Amino acid sequence: MPDLFIGGEWTAAVDGNVREIRCPADGTLVAVIDEAGPKDAAAAIAAARDAFDSGPWPHTPAAERGRLLLRVADLLERDKDVLARAESLDTGKRQVESEYDMDDIAACFRYFGNLTASGGTDRVVDAGNPQVDSRVVHEPVGVCSLITPWNYPLLQTAWKVAPALGAGNTFVLKPSELTPHTAIMLMRLLTEAGLPAGAANLVLGTGPVVGAPLTEDPHVDMVSFTGGLVTGRRIMAAAAPTVKKVALELGGKNPNIVFADVDFDAAVDHALMAVFLHSGQVCSAGARLLVQNTLHDRFVDELVTRARAIRLGGPFDPDARAGPLISAEHRQKVEAYVAAGLAEGAVLRCGGTRPADPALAGGYYYLPTVLDECTPGMSVVRDESFGPVLTVERFRDEEEAVALANDTMYGLAGAVWSQDAGRTHRVAARLRAGTVWINDFHPYVPQAEWGGVKQSGFGRELGPAGLAEYRETKHIWRNLEPKPQRWFE
Ligand code: NAD
After folding, report:
1. Which end of the chain has fewer CB atoms at under 10 Å, N or C?
2. How much distance in Å is there from the Cα of 211 to the middle of ligand 1?
3. Which atom number of ligand 1 is nearest to the Cα of residue 452?
4. Whose CA is nearest to atom 14 of ligand 1?
């Protein structure tokens, strides 16, 4: 069966191109997938445009749209195991992590299903004139290009697809060329749930070839992008000539601030999870550990002991606790950041190499790495390495902790650890980030907005603002008794 989904039909690429998808854990061939080109992108945009301008979806009552999203949530739960397996084969992440992702994805559809069905965002405005009926209504934006990364393929897709459909839009989805499978499966589930043809379209392929047209085409009204900073800048520029609405969820270099008065075991445990979850390939990874001087040595010693014990392995190895990086190219990038950090004076406390275990030689593995005595100017501290690399910096007091934490072009997330509630409250208020955790790291819920400040992007996903992102606001003024104004007499 072909893999592109355009106007309700499964189709191969016009140019006949295909791509091999290989599992990053061992290089085995997962599948050969149709690879779209600009002509396929144009066809998908035309189908989404037609479905928006002439199709039923934008005018389907909100309650019905909400019910469809709830049906999708049920189908995602029904197919959880198959979806999780497909996600793990594409990304190399542990099956158990993919299963958690699938639960979160179903919860996301359920949340937006209920939010959409509850309707009620339109409002009557007092125009100061009883002869006028003035209303503010919310409408879908139109055709949305949804462009997503490889680290949480279906999760990042769900954060866009569920609110986009809930608000009544039609869309063209382009997942990462490395991880197409769960996007294909989602199209089948949307169809099974009863979504009209053309409302959801899928093209597969690389960013420059098939992603770029989705950001430039005048028939597209909005681009919602999750991915790296450099691509985000490019997309913003590409969308400018046609003044599209743009939402950008970009990278992060997230501080994890640990004061000396913490619950030691909990803070160490969460610091590990913060950075090494999914081998550091998490936009909100706590990759910059800031530790108060007086706790530094004991904290880092314990962290290093536990990082050394993290067992690497493939998605279906029940003893593995972390998987491979996504590609050979990405691992080289991570290696280059570590080498640069060491050249700039960082102290290697563990990792810093590929694992010696021959059983892992076929995958893109890299050992959990801790670089101590780092300073703010180092590239490994400033840039997002997006790998299992923790940089450690010391601070004296609250003032210095906040200054170091905010000394970054990013502003996605951050955490503060202390048993002094007043202090955590003050620090949380001063961190320039879209999410701040106090005595925790990583949790999120679909009811709460997610997104960045500074160069981590703009716009919000999840929460009521995540739905509002896919809506336009219109003021309708109705004069019930029009009379001549005689302005020019
Ligand atoms: P990437 O920017 O390389 O690619 C993301 C997507 O954009 C892919 O589908 C890619 O094919 C496409 N693309 C690339 N060039 C394009 C172009 N010129 N026009 C249109 N589309 C183009 O990112 P990645 O390596 O896939 O993902 C990792 C990045 O994603 C990290 O920086 C991470 O922090 C970020 N991320 C952010 C969040 C968040 O919520 N803020 C969540 C997950 C990942």
Report:
1. C
2. 11
3. 41
4. 207
Catalytic residue list contains 99: no
Q: How far is the CA of 228 from the centre of ligand 1 (A)?
A: 4
211 lines ligand 1 (CB under 6 A): yes
DSSP 327-394: -HHHHHHHHHHHHHHHHTT-EEEE--S----GGGTTS-----EEEES--TTSHHHHS---SSEEEEEE
Tell me, rounded to whole angstroms, the distance of Cα 343 from its chain centroid: 32
Element (H, E) at 249: strand 245-249
Query: How many other C-beta atoms can be found within 10 angstroms of the C-beta atom of residue 275?
Result: 28
139 is catalytic: no
Distance 105 CA to ligand 1 centre (A): 19
Whether residue 205 has its Cβ less than 6 Å from ligand 1? no
Q: Provide the whole-model pTM.
A: 0.98
